[in-house]
User: Fold this.
Amino acid sequence: MIRFNLSNTYKAPVKFVMLDENGNPETMEFQAEFQRFNAPAVKALMAEKLDDPVFARRVLKGWKLKDENGQDVEFNDVNLERVLSLAGLAGDIGMRFLETVGAARPKA
Assistant:
């Protein structure tokens, strides 16, 4: 079965590793809500060769994210910029999006 009537967004976990103040790796995770694109739109998006933060802003439409105190972090422009300012995280968001749409798979 293939379902053609799909929502405009979908959710997927994003995992990433940051080093703590002692240099120890700390794995973090949040639930991303990505914009759903059809195959030609994904190809066009990739052809734009956007830098990581711009790409992440384009595909990320929401999240379920908690801070270190367990408090929900609202998805808004200010918090999005805070998240994207963490080194490497914008790239991880973009790579996770590409994985979920199959664009990160090697071509046979």
Notes: The mean pLDDT is 91. The first strand starts at residue 9 and ends at 19. Residues 9-100 form one domain.
